[in-house]
Design a protein that fits this description.
Order of helices and strands: EHEEHHEHE
Oligomer: single chain
Largest sheet: 3 strands, antiparallel
Mean pLDDT: 82
Strand order of the largest sheet: 3-2-4
Number of helices: 4
Radius of gyration: 18 Å
Number of strands: 5
Helix content: 55-70%
Number of domains: 1
Strand content: 5-15%
Length: 147
């Protein structure tokens, strides 16, 4: 029996993985990029890691459920999680930019925003896309190789 997987749950898993990656990447650098500050050292980064893992689990649940028994609440939860993660990442990025602008007067310190929060916001947008795609019918079905 050939099992097919829809694209929307795979997008949810991908979005969760991108969120985890962005939380691990540096959010800010000091001393001309020599000292990175990663998101996972603080509470917000750890919460974003938890959100990414939650999205991966929700995508896995959505993938494992038979097509006719899939709960719509999973797709709604993925979309809500994506909206919260994207909003939080944008809010945090604005704060990092303000902090970097204030510290710009000290050339030795020279804080700069890094790419981690942008990657987190892309992951959140992927989760929103997964929820919208699921609402539109889940996209094309993907057959496993050799099946």
């Amino acid at each position: 029996m050939m099992r097919t997987v829809r694209g929307a749950p795979l997008l949810a898993v991908l979005g969760g993985a991108v969120i985890c990656l962005g939380a691990w990447l540096p959010w800010m650098t000091y001393f001309a990029g020599l000292y990175p500050l990663r998101g996972v050292i603080g509470l917000y980064g750890r919460l974003l890691i938890a959100a990414g893992i939650g999205a991966i689990l929700l995508g896995g649940i959505d993938t494992a459920a038979p097509l006719r028994f899939r709960p719509r609440t999973v797709a709604r939860a993925v979309g809500l999680l994506g909206l919260v993660v994207t909003s939080a990442a944008v809010w945090l990025f604005v704060g990092v930019r303000e902090l970097a602008h204030i510290g710009a007067t000290n050339a030795m310190f020279s804080p700069r925003p890094a790419s981690g929060l942008l990657v987190v916001s892309v992951g959140g947008l992927v989760l929103i896309l997964a929820a919208l795609r699921d609402r539109a019918g889940g996209g094309p079905e993907i057959s496993p190789p050799g099946g």
